[in-house]
Each structure stands twice: as structure tokens, then as C-alpha cells.
Design brief:
Elements (H helix, E strand, L loop, with lengths): L3 E4 L4 E4 L9 E4 L4 E6 L6 E3 L6 E3 L14 E6 L5 E2 L12 E7 L2 E8 L2 E8 L6 E10 L5 E14 L1 H4 L3 H4 L5 E4 L2 E4 L9 E7 L5 E5 H5 L9 H5 L12 E11 L4 E12 L20 H7 L2 H19 L2 E4 L3 H21 L14 E2 H11 L4 H13 L10 E3 L4 E2 L10 H16 L8 E2 L9 E2 H13 L44 E2 H20 L3 H21 L9 E2 L5 E2 L9 E2 H9 L8 H12 L1 E2 L2 E2 L2 E2 L25 E2 L3 H10 L3 H11 L8 H4 L7 E4 L10 E4 L3 H14 L2 E4 L2 E4 L9 E8 L2 E8 L8 E6 L2 E3 L3 E3 L8 E7 L2
Parallel strand pairs: 39-43
Antiparallel strand pairs: 1-2, 2-9, 3-4, 4-5, 6-13, 7-8, 7-13, 9-10, 10-11, 11-12, 12-19, 13-18, 14-15, 15-16, 16-19, 17-18, 20-38, 21-22, 22-23, 24-25, 26-27, 27-28, 29-32, 30-31, 33-34, 34-35, 36-37, 37-42, 38-39, 40-41, 40-43
Helix pairs in contact: 7-8, 7-19, 8-9, 8-10, 8-19, 9-10, 10-11, 10-12, 11-12, 12-13, 12-14, 14-15, 14-16, 16-17, 16-19
The structure holds beta-D-glucopyranose (BGC) and 1-deoxynojirimycin (NOJ).
The site of 1-deoxynojirimycin has 9 residues, from helix 8.
């Protein structure tokens, strides 16, 4: 069952009923000011850090799920009837409803009582504010007398404190209302130099800034007292809950349309210019007033919106495909790339499943996210890499997370996730492949954010590699630490106390439990590092890396091969996990994917053997589950993985993030049919028809789809912020379509379904545009045998880097098997 459809030309997803199975959301903003917005206008906004600079309040895990947002209320002043044009929060029946989620904007349109409303929400590029552009049309045969009320609840900045520290916070709230602009200035009197503003283009009939006055003490959001009586109270908040509500009266002739602009934003003043007059407590509004004035003008709003559209056309234009598969096309061309930018901006901090108060930016996550966005914003990728590397420990280890505002490692979570350091090598390699900017390796970067500790980035990578060598276990495999990629395989945790954090509780000294996954990752990253060393003409060093890699491969084959697949780990008792000797958890996905991606088993048939095992034991019609059989009970020595009921999350859920590893592995053995089939199973667009089962947005990947052991097999959860975004994007663009970045050029090596007759990719790369037409006349799955560049046949399938030229480079590639 569908709840909407894709408008591919507009790059929009169109939702045509408000009661989607879950809130289907979008992100506003792509630089510093961000908002989450659901299809019924729920969500919140923040400046840079979802926890520390939260502008508006949101109620998590509420019933109904989605409460708090950018609400408008319309009231018919003749009858007293009122409704929400975005359906929530009044949930009045709408005669028409449509939500269009687009690239950085959302438009919610509806019709109720013959009044049409259409509100476009977006964040202009380069600004720290959001615009709500609302137009109202009277479709009645007679004039309409309406009131419009806006409504947002201000958050007292630190979203965690705001939700917990009421004894203080109920007494700190402060606002100013000047010229119809509502200023939220809690704590501005002391150590904050920032405030929020909420402005409206129209003359106000009134306003409210105290939530409980606006709502009425015993009213809910569905019948605010001010809306019910048709008149604001002009309340000024002293303490309690500062609120932003404008009241505008609109009289519309039949057929008449009127536009109202609302602008909500964040502004900072220099410390010595906070107040005006200087000895007062009044916000100095000199620098904010022109900003507000600019966006209360609809011409400027038009221009800003067009600029945003162009920005996305340009970014998405870097990689475009026309293939026989519509689902692949729209995900590659629009939505998957767009989701990659969201994960870049948010990491795993703010979504409808990540509260924005818990987690900072993950070291592992942010490095992997690079795979999906480096081609779009290489400059920002560079910055991100350097920020991440600066939190690296001198030991080569990494803080597991860092806070975006302070760019400091997060002490609460600490380090010892022993896979972390290698993701930095892979992230940097992806950057180098895309940009050829080798200078990044010489960039001085601090360790542990300590000044004076600067070393070239390259030295950071060396330490990442050595980190593992200095932490080998009894079989010569890497010690796992608190966890590896699988945060829930906590082999040193042994927690029997409710509430302890699995990721940070450690009851063992960590000298025994080992990870085959990290071993495979080490091989993969080690080969990358060796290639970088060679580029830097450090031959002996490269040889050393390769020797260590070869040693590790031998250890993997000796202790990490189980006969038909790769073992997953060894526990604190030295017993294998993910082996045929286990009762439960006999086979895991992660070690299969990473070992084959690292090249292990490609020459001796083990890779193919492994992939058959994956197909037999792990693949389901909804995707590939993480392991089998699921753990049926809690195992003290395994940790969080066994805390989940079977079929969910890491306990045999379809953890979409690592499905692409298997897909890449399938392409490496040349199995294009199966690679694409697996891709399609988790592709949200291909799952659009089963919306009532899948439940999450059909335009973005979810972290998890319930596995076959779960009663809700096929149900997705945790959409948007997931490594799945980058990995699927990387996999389909570089391994299936096979237009792959390398240090010295673009490789054309598609591995596709035999039924495809061909496809075309347009790729901007290092200053040139390539139009690559792949033909598959013989129904092969791989093997470019003929490559023509500008009509001339060339040897091999690598397009070497060339000086930029103005016209596109035309490439024809013929698959002949
Ligand atoms: C989740 C993991 C996640 C971890 C982060 C766990 O509860 O299952 O997917 O990586 O929390 O702390
Ligand atoms: C989600 C986390 O963000 C990621 O870092 C981890 O690898 C996966 N869960 C698997 O546990």
C-alpha cells in the first residue's frame, strides 16, 4: 500500500494523506542552521548542535508520536471554526492534503472549508534562519474573514537541560516583543550571546509569548485558548515556557490569494555589543534587523528559494544515471545522495529516532559517511576529516564520538572501540580518490585536541594502523575492545546490572576477546595505506604494511575460516562466535562482507563459497539479516546483541548498513544479478508498495528492517541517519554501476544484471564531465572489453585524470564478459 508517490522531475516525494504509518520527515538546512520537519509540520530547529543550541522544543516519544512543530492555525472568524492546515495538531478532516518533501524544503498544502493553504518551509543558503511562506486562497463564493495564528515553543537552548531541570528553567525564560518581532532571549542576560527571533510580514492583531496563556492551562495543542476565542492575549513570558505566536487577520475576497511570511532564526551578537543601550538589558538589534527585513520581502524569498534549488541541482548533477531500473535511478540521482548529505550534517545525532541530546558525531560513522558525500562537498569533507583526526588519541585509538560545537572528543563514551582508527584510513582514501588532493596528508593535525601535539595527517594514519598491531590477542587476531563495527557485540562487558551502558561498561581486561571483523578491516585499510605510502614514495614502508597485511590474512585463514564462511570473533573464553560449532549465532554478515572486500578468498574459491552461505543462511526477501540463528536469550558474555528480542537490530535484524558489503562482495566475484537483487530488496523506493509493512519513508534508507525471526518481519525502523546511506550509495554508484574513483582516475567496471541492455552515467570528476555509456549487447554481468574515449579505442578500463576541458568527455564501454 502506498501513501504517496515520487515526483521524479521535481525531485520531490509527494505524500497524499497525513496519517502515514510513522511521521515521514525531511531536513531543512545544510550548513549551520537545521530543522527536522515531518509531513504534518512536526519537528524542531537548532543551530549547529542539536543538543546545545536548540531553538524550538519537541516532545519525544509522544502519543501521537509527532508533537511539537511549526504550526499554523486557521480560524474562520465568522463561524469560530478552526483547523491546522498541516493536519496536526487539530487533526481536523482536510478535503485535500499534500506534502511535498523536496531537496532542503517541504511544502504542505491542504484545503479545508474551501480555504486553501500552502506553506513552504526552507532555510536559505548562508543564513541561520528558516522561512515559512504561507499562501491562503479563498475558494468560496463569498468573502472569508480569517485569523492566522503561528505557533512554536522555544527551547531554552540546551535541549537536555530543557527537558529535565525545571526547578531552574521555569524561572529563567525571557522574551522581548518589538515591532511585531518576538525575540527569545533566555540566558542572554548572562553568558549567552545568542537569541532567537520569530517575525511575521504582516501587521499583527496580537501575539503570545507565554505558552500556557496561548494554550490555556488545561488545553492541548489541538485547541489553544487564543485560537478558540479568536484573539491573542499579548502575553509576555516571565519564566515558564516562552512561546512564539503571531496573530494575523486576513480578509479574502472569493478567489483571492494572500501570502504571509514567517521567519524564525538564530542570531549572535559580539560580547561587547550585546545590549542597546549598552547599559541596558535590551537586545541590540542593529545587526539582526536587516536580516529580518530581507526575508520579510517576498522577492528575496523567491531568490533564496531558487538559489537553494540550483544548489541541489548542481550537487546532484555530479553523478546522474539513466538505467533500466527506476528505483536505482531515483535513489542514485536524488534521494540517496540527499540522505548522504543529511548523515554528513547530522551524523547520528538528530532524527525522529535520535533525540539530538544523546550522541555526538561518531568517529566511525562520520568517516564512513564520507563515502557518500565526498564528491558533493569535498571541501567540507576535508574539514570533517581534519576535525575527526584531531580527536584521535596519541595511541592511534579514537574517541568514539565528538561534539560538533566544541569539536572535542566525548569523554563520557571514551574510546577502545578497536575498529574506529581504521575508518579514518578508509575515509581519507575516499577523499584522495575523489579529489587527488594529496596535500591533506601533510596537514598538521593535533592529537586529542592538544595544541603542540600536531603531526601530519599521514602520521595519524600510521598510528591507526599500528594501533591494531599493538593489540593482538591469543590467536594473533585484533582484540575487540568495547566493540567493533557491531556496537552490540560487547565481549568484555559482562553486564548483569540493569541500566548499565553496554558500550561503556567493561568487566574484563580485554586481553582475550578478538574480532575477525577488525582483522578483515585491517587488511582492507592496510592495503589502502600501503598504496598511499607508495604514492608518497615510501617503498619500504609500503612493503612493511603489506607484509603485516599478509600475516593477518594468514591468521584469518587459519583461525577465522570456518569451512564455509568466516568466523565472527572469539569471546573472552577463547571460544568462536559465528561458527558452526555455536548453538546460536553460527554465521554473521560482517566478517563475510569485510573479508571479501579486503580481497580474502577471491582467488581460492572461499569468497564464492562464503557468499553461497550468506545466501543460504542470511538472505531474506526483505534483505540480509545480521546473523543466524538469532540469540534466543541474554548471554552475559555477548552483551547488547543478545539483549534484543530475535529479529530486531543487531540480533538478527536486517541491519541495512552492512548489506552493501555483501553486495560489493557479489560484484567482486562478478555476480551482477545477485548484487542488484540484494540492493533492490532494501531499496526503499522498491518497497514503496508495501508501505504498510515497511512503514518508514519510502525515499530514504532505514538502519534496520525487522528480520525473519521477528513478528514484524519487513518493518523498517530508524530511518535517515544510518551508515546505510553512504554504503548503499557508494556500492551502487561505484561497484554496481562501476564508475569507480581511484587515485589515478575513474575506473569503468560495471557489474550489472544480465538483463540490462545498458545504461548511461554522467559524472563530474576532477574538473571534467564524463558521459559514460555502457552497452551490454550480449547480456553479460561484467567485463568491459572495449572502451572508447571520444570515439577512440583505449586499452584497459581506466580513464586517467586529464586537465579540465570545457566540453564533456564521451565514453563508450562495451561489456563482453
Ligand atoms: C544500538 C546500536 C548503536 C549503539 C550506539 C545500540 O543500542 O543497537 O545500533 O550503534 O546503541 O550506542
Ligand atoms: C549504529 C552505529 O551508529 C554504528 O556506528 C554501528 O556500527 C552500528 N549501529 C552497528 O552496531
Amino acid at each position: 500500500m502506498r501513501f504517496g508517490h515520487f515526483d521524479d522531475n521535481q525531485r520531490e516525494y509527494v505524500i497524499n494523506r497525513p496519517d502515514t504509518p510513522l511521521p515521514w520527515i525531511n531536513y531543512l538546512g545544510c550548513e549551520a542552521y537545521f530543522g527536522l520537519i515531518s509531513n504534518t509540520a512536526g519537528g524542531y530547529s537548532f543551530y549547529r548542535d542539536a543538543r546545545l543550541r536548540r531553538l524550538t522544543r519537541y516532545r519525544y516519544n509522544h502519543a501521537p508520536f509527532d508533537l511539537g512543530g511549526r504550526y499554523l492555525y486557521l480560524r474562520d472568524n465568522d463561524t469560530g471554526e478552526f483547523w491546522s492546515p498541516s493536519w496536526q495538531p487539530t487533526r481536523t478532516r482536510l478535503d485535500k492534503y499534500e506534502c511535498r518533501h523536496g531537496m532542503g524544503y517541504t511544502i504542505i498544502g491542504s484545503s479545508c472549508k474551501q480555504i486553501e493553504a500552502r506553506t513552504c518551509y526552507f532555510v536559505p543558503l548562508g543564513e541561520t534562519l528558516e522561512i515559512w511562506r504561507c499562501s491562503l486562497t479563498n475558494r468560496r463564493k463569498k468573502p472569508a474573514k480569517l485569523s492566522v495564528f503561528s505557533s512554536i515553543e522555544f527551547c531554552l537552548w540546551d535541549a537536555h537541560d530543557d527537558a529535565t531541570n525545571f526547578q531552574r528553567n521555569f524561572s529563567t525564560g525571557q522574551v522581548e516583543v518589538v515591532d511585531g518581532v518576538i525575540y527569545h532571549k533566555t540566558e542572554y542576560r548572562e553568558r549567552r550571546n545568542h537569541f532567537a527571533f520569530f517575525a511575521c510580514s504582516e501587521k499583527l492583531a496580537g501575539f503570545d509569548t507565554q505558552r500556557d496563556t496561548f494554550l490555556g492551562v488545561y488545553h492541548g495543542w489541538d485547541n489553544p485558548a487564543a485560537v478558540e476565542r479568536g484573539k491573542s492575549f499579548n502575553s509576555i513570558a516571565y519564566g515558564w515556557a516562552p512561546h512564539g505566536s503571531h496573530h494575523v487577520k486576513v480578509n479574502l475576497e472569493p478567489g483571492e490569494t494572500k501570502e504571509i511570511l514567517f521567519v524564525l532564526g538564530y542570531h549572535e551578537n559580539p560580547v561587547d555589543k550585546k545590549f542597546d543601550p549598552p547599559d541596558s538589558q535590551t537586545i541590540n538589534k542593529k545587526s539582526v534587523k536587516p536580516v529580518i527585513a530581507r526575508y520579510l520581502n517576498s522577492k528575496n524569498v523567491d531568490a533564496a528559494f531558487q538559489k537553494l534549488r540550483n544548489y541541489w541541482s548542481d550537487l546532484l548533477g555530479i553523478y546522474q544515471v539513466q538505467s533500466p531500473d527506476i528505483h536505482a535511478n531515483r535513489m542514485v540521482n536524488v534521494w540517496n545522495a540527499y540522505q548522504c548529505m543529511a548523515t554528513f550534517n547530522m551524523s547520528r545525532s538528530a532524527s525522529f529516532y535520535e533525540s539530538g541530546i544523546g550522541r555526538g558525531l561518531g568517529f566511525r560513522d562520520s568517516n564512513q559517511d564520507l563515502l557518500g558525500f565526498v564528491h558533493m562537498v569535498p571541501g567540507r569533507a576535508r574539514e570533517r576529516i581534519l576535525d575527526l583526526a584531531a580527536t584521535q588519541l596519541k595511541s592511534g585509538g579514537a574517541f568514539h564520538q565528538y561534539q560538533p560545537l566544541t569539536r572535542r572528543g566525548n569523554n563520557d563514551v571514551g574510546s577502545n572501540f578497536n575498529d574506529d582508527p581504521h575508518w579514518l584510513i578508509l575515509g581519507v582514501a575516499a577523499y584522495l580518490r575523489e579529489t587527488g588532493d594529496w596535500s591533506i596528508l601533510d596537514e598538521p593535525v593535533q592529537f586529542e585536541n592538544e595544541s603542540g601535539s600536531e603531526q601530519p595527517l599521514y602520521e595519524h594514519l600510521r598510528r591507526s594502523f599500528n594501533y591494531t598491531l599493538e593489540r593482538l590477542g591469543p590467536h594473533g587476531l585484533p582484540l575487540i575492545g568495547r566493540a567493533d563495527w557491531n556496537d552490540c557485540l560487547n565481549l568484555n562487558c559482562f553486564s548483569d546490572t540493569p541500566g548499565q551502558a553496554f558500550q561503556t561498561t567493561t568487566h574484563k581486561d580485554g586481553k582475550i576477546a578478538e574480532s575477525v571483523f577488525i582483522a578483515g578491516l585491517f587488511v582492507l585499510a592496510g592495503k589502502e595505506l600501503a598504496a598511499m605510502a607508495l604514492k608518497r614514495k615510501l617503498k619500504a614502508e609500503a612493503e612493511r604494511y603489506l607484509a603485516e597485511v599478509a600475516k593477518m590474512e594468514t591468521v584469518i585463514l587459519k583461525h577465522g575460516w570456518d569451512g564455509a564462511w568466516f568466523v565472527r570473533a572469539y569471546d573472552d573464553f577463547g571460544k568462536p562466535i559465528g561458527s558452526k560449532v555455536c548453538q546460536e549465532g553460527k554465521i554473521f554478515i560482517e566478517s563475510q562482507g569485510i573479508c571479501i572486500m579486503a580481497g580474502i578468498g577471491l582467488n581460492d574459491g572461499k569468497a564464492r563459497r562464503t557468499l553461497e552461505s550468506v545466501n543460504k543462511h542470511l538472505a531474506t526477501k526483505h534483505g540480509i539479516v545480521l546473523q543466524q540463528p538469532a540469540y534466543s536469550k541474554y548471554y552475559l558474555h555477548l552483551g547488547e546483541i543478545s539483549s534484543y528480542p530475535p529479529g530486531y537490530k543487531e540480533n538478527a535484524g536486517i541491519f541495512c548498513h552492512n548489506n552493501p558489503w555483501i553486495i560489493i562482495a557479489e560484484t567482486m566475484v562478478g555476480n551482477g544479478n545477485r548484487a542488484f537483487d540484494y540492493y533492490t530488496r532494501i531499496n526503499p523506493s522498491a518497497r514503496e508498495d508495501i508501505g504498510e509493512v515497511h512503514r518508514c519513508e519510502p525515499y530514504v534508507f532505514a538502519q534496520m528492517i525487522a528480520g525473519k525471526d521477528a513478528p514484524t518481519h519487513g518493518e523498517a525502523k530508524n530511518s535517515w541517519l544510518t551508515g546505510t546511506a553512504a554504503w548503499t550509495y557508494f556500492t551502487v554508484t561505484q561497484w554496481i554501476l562501476g564508475v569507480r574513483t581511484e587515485f589515478d582516475g575513474l575506473r569503468v567496471d560495471p557489474v550489472i544484471p544480465a538483463r540490462w541492455k545498458g545504461f548511461t552515467v554522467t559524472r563530474r570528476f576532477r574538473g571534467n564531465t564524463y558521459i559514460i555509456e555502457v552497452q551490454n549487447p550480449k547480456g553479460k554481468q561484467r567485463g568491459v572489453k572495449r572502451l572508447l574515449v571520444d570515439g577512440k579505442e583505449v586499452a584497459g578500463n581506466l580513464l586517467p585524470v586529464r586537465p579540465p576541458r570545457s566540453g564533456p568527455i564521451r565514453v563508450e564501454a562495451v561489456l563482453e564478459g
